[in-house]
Inverse folding.
């Protein structure tokens, strides 16, 4: 069964992490989820928002994939 390992509203970051993990040999997929925004946010951003969920296909790789993802995110924030 697949496991959700990351969620972001930054579509570029979601695509980057998916590509990075696939190039490292992990089987992943991205699911985009529509999020309805509040009345206040609608005035600024429109009435919908999209979140990307990154899912790992093979649960046996979960611990290594989470560690890999954390390392990738820490490099990006440095």
């Amino acid at each position: 069964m697949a496991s959700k390992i990351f969620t972001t509203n930054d579509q570029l970051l979601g695509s980057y992490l998916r590509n990075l993990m696939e190039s490292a040999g992990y089987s992943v997929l991205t699911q985009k989820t529509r999020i309805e925004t509040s009345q206040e946010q609608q005035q600024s951003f429109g009435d919908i928002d999209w979140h990307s969920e990154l899912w790992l296909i093979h649960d046996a790789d979960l611990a290594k994939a989470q560690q890999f993802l954390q390392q990738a995110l820490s490099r990006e924030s440095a």
